[in-house]
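All the exercises in this workshop are built on plain-text protein records. An example says more than a description, so a record of this kind follows:
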Amino acid sequence: DARIVPYGKLAFDAASTVYHYATEIFEGLKAYRTPDGAVQLFRPIENVRRMNNSAERMSLPQMDEDMMLEALLKFVSVEKDWVPDKPGTSLYLRPFLVAVDPCLSLHPVHQCVFCIIACPVGSYFPNGLKPVPILIEEQDVRAVRGGTGYAKCGGNYAGAMRASDRAEAKGFSQVLWIDGVERKYVEEAGGMNVMFQINGEIVTPELNGSVLPGITRKSCIEVMRGWGMKVTERLLSLDELLEACKTGALEEAWCCGTAAVIAPIGELAYGDDHYIVNNNQIGKTTRRLYDEVTGIQWGLLPDKYNWTVAVK
C-alpha cells in the first residue's frame, strides 16, 4: 500500500517497540540539481543495500531492492521542485524503517513502517571549505566489533552525543573515535569516516564490523585508486597516527560522509597535545577529491563511474 502523502506527524501506539527497544534503522542520501535543471541521485542502490544490511543486524525485515529504489525515485520525481539549485545545496532524503508492534515484551518484530521524508539543505560549508579541529576521544566509545557499529541505527548516534557535547564545549567540531576493544585503533570521526595521507599513502580504517561502510568513503577510495594513488584499508593505531603528526609524515587528513562529502582536518588534539595538520590548510588531495566527488554529484563533471541515477 505504498503511497506519497503530504508531510505530517506519524502516530504509533505508545507501546511500539521502536520507542522502547530502538528497533529502527535509517539511511541518508541526497538529490542534486544539475546545471541543465535535471535532478539526479548519487549511488542510491548502495544506500538500499546498506539499509538491508542494517535491517539484518537489527532483526528487521529485508526490503525488496527494486521496490525501495523505485520508492526513492518516485518520491523525488513527485517532490523535485523542492530540489534547490544554488551551489552546494541539495534535497536530503531520509528513508527509515521502524518497528511498531504494540507490545512491551521482547520478541521478534512483526509489524514495521517504511517511510521516506526529505528536506532542502544548504551547503555544509557556507563560507567555503575550511579545515576543522578534531578531539581524540579518550573516554567513550562509539561501537565494538560484534556490536551495531556497521549498522545505521539511531542508538549508535545517541550514544555518541555525550562525547560530541564535551568536544564542542572545548571548541572542537568532531571527535575521533578509538576502537572499543583494545582502545588503540582509530575508527571514525564523529558520524563520518576518516582518511589520512601518510607519506603519500592514503590510509583509512578497515571495515571490521564497528566502522560504518560509508558510501562517500567507498567513492573516495575508488576515485583515488583510479588516479593511481595507493589507498590502504587497515588497522591504524593511535600511536602510529600521533607519531606521523610529530614527524610531519601526516600530510593531510579529512572526514568523509553524505552531509559534508569531504571535511578537511586542520588540527588533532589528544589530551594536552595539539597537532596542526598541513598548516591548518586544505591539502591538494583533499581539494581534488572534494572537487571530483561533488562535481559528479552536481553534474559539473562527467560521471565516468556511472554512479548517478536520473530522476524523471
About this structure: The radius of gyration is 20 Å. Residues 173 and 185 are 21 Å apart (CA to CA). The chain has eight helices and 15 strands. The mean pLDDT is 97.
